[in-house]
Each structure stands twice: as structure tokens, then as C-alpha cells.
Design a protein that fits this description.
This protein has about 210 residues and is of the alpha/beta class. The protein has ten helices and eight strands. The chain folds into two domains: about 160 residues, Rossmann fold (3-Layer(aba) Sandwich), CATH 3.40.50.300; about 35 residues, no CATH class. The structure holds adenosine monophosphate.
Length: about 210
């Protein structure tokens, strides 16, 4: 079973993808994570990727599709996949269809998380990740959990692209280029809309309900 988790930056796609990984052994393909890994290698391509990410611009389809194919080729054909942050444009959606065909796969569900621009801004501005345990929290909303961390929050870092200018650019790009992908996908499969402003556990329950059919 393969799922696309759809929604604007800060909608909680990564958090919900992690839940599916923990609860159902899904394999998470986050193109953002794949690109950040590539950027960390500091190769020529890595430096270009870093520049685009820091401005909130899209990385070219060629690079993203190559990373995607490399990742898919390492998986067993029956491993269930959750796509997080991909496809982000109509061209990526049609590339995905072709790539999945080649791997004899298809998309079974599209789950779209809806969150307003205001909430996204607050969520992203406060987003911090612990470099040691990889947990993502919010410095405004999760004060108590941060105090209870075994490292007392000493290893919390912010993503470089989580600043106001870049966030607003990423959101505008979502509205202009990514949201229309839902129309394209709705011709191929059912889109399940979920209120992304609910509590994390409530969203997880709704997603569980959808995938259990
Ligand atoms: P994310 O981790 O999904 O928020 O992505 C972080 C950044 O990586 C985005 O703002 C883009 O610069 C880049 N990126 C991630 N996924 C894609 C994609 N599918 N196509 C192009 N650029 C992407």
C-alpha cells in the first residue's frame, strides 16, 4: 500500500509519516530529507541544492527524480511507502506515475492535511529538532516536553529554511504550484481530506481509519 501525504509546509506531514513508520512499518520517502542529505555532502550539486532550499525554491525535477529512483530501487517491491513532500508540481505527479509504473507500484491513497497560513507560520517559526534523538518539537507549544528531554533541549536546532521570508515563499509556492496537483491526483485516486489543526493523535486516528478502509 502506497500513500501520498499532501499538504503545505508545516502541515505535519513529517510527524504523521513517522507515525506510519512506527505503527505499520511504512518506508518514508521525504524528498526534503533526501535533498538535505545530499546538501550535507557539500558536493557541487549539494551546494546548489542548499542555495535553493535556503530560499524556499524548488530543486529541479531531474535531481529530485534521480534521488527518488535511487531510493525506490533499494526497497523490496512489497514495502509500503509513504511519500512526504512529493509530488510538489503537476510535472512531478506525472513523473511519479511513470516511475511507480516502472517499479510495478501505484498510489493507493492521497491524504491531504489542511492547515491555514497563520497556523503554519507559528508552527514553522517554532520548529526545532533534536540533533541527537531526531525528535521534532515546537519551542512555543512544547515547552513542557522540551524541559523533560534527557538532554534538556541542549541539542535542539532550527532548520535554516525555517525563517519568516522563506516560510512565506514556501507557502506561496505551495498555493501556486503544489495545491493544483490535488486536482490532477483526484482524477486517478480518491483524495482524503483531514483537518491538520487537530491534535497529533487525532490526526493519526483519522489516517488509521482511512488506511483501514
Ligand atoms: P520539506 O522538508 O518538504 O519542507 O522541503 C524542504 C525544501 O526542500 C523545500 O522548500 C524545497 O526547497 C526542497 N524540496 C523538497 N521536496 C522537493 C520536491 N519534491 N521538489 C523540489 N524541491 C523540493
Amino acid at each position: 500500500m502506497n500513500i501520498i501525504l499532501f499538504g503545505p509546509p508545516g502541515a505535519g506531514k513529517g510527524t504523521q509519516a513517522q507515525k506510519l513508520v512506527e505503527n505499520h512499518n511504512y518506508y518514508q520517502i521525504s524528498t526534503g530529507d533526501l535533498l538535505r542529505n545530499e546538501a550535507n555532502k557539500k558536493s557541487n550539486i549539494g551546494v546548489e541544492i542548499e542555495k535553493l532550499i535556503s530560499k524556499g525554491e524548488f530543486v529541479s525535477d531531474e535531481i529530485v527524480n534521480d534521488l527518488l529512483k535511487q531510493t525506490l530501487s533499494k526497497l523490496n517491491s512489497h514495502d509500503p511507502i509513504i511519500f512526504d513532500g512529493y509530488p510538489r508540481s503537476i510535472s512531478q505527479a506525472s513523473n511519479l506515475e511513470q516511475i511507480l509504473n516502472n517499479f510495478r507500484r501505484k498510489i493507493d491513497f492521497v491524504i491531504s492535511l489542511n492547515v491555514s497560513r497563520d497556523i503554519i507560520q507559528k508552527r514553522i517559526m517554532g520548529r526545532v529538532t533534536c540533533e541527537k534523538c531526531n525528535i521534532t518539537l515546537n519551542e512555543y507549544f512544547d515547552q513542557e516536553r522540551i524541559k523533560k528531554l534527557s538532554c534538556s533541549g541542549k541539542h535542539l536546532v532550527k532548520r535554516k529554511d525555517d525563517n519568516l521570508e522563506t516560510i512565506l515563499n514556501r507557502y506561496d509556492k505551495y498555493i501556486e504550484t503544489t495545491k493544483p496537483v490535488l486536482d490532477f491526483l483526484s482524477k486517478k485516486t480518491t483524495i482524503h481530506e483531514v483537518d491538520g489543526t487537530l491534535k497529533i493523535e487525532e490526526i493519526t486516528d483519522k489516517i488509521e481509519h482511512i488506511i483501514k478502509g
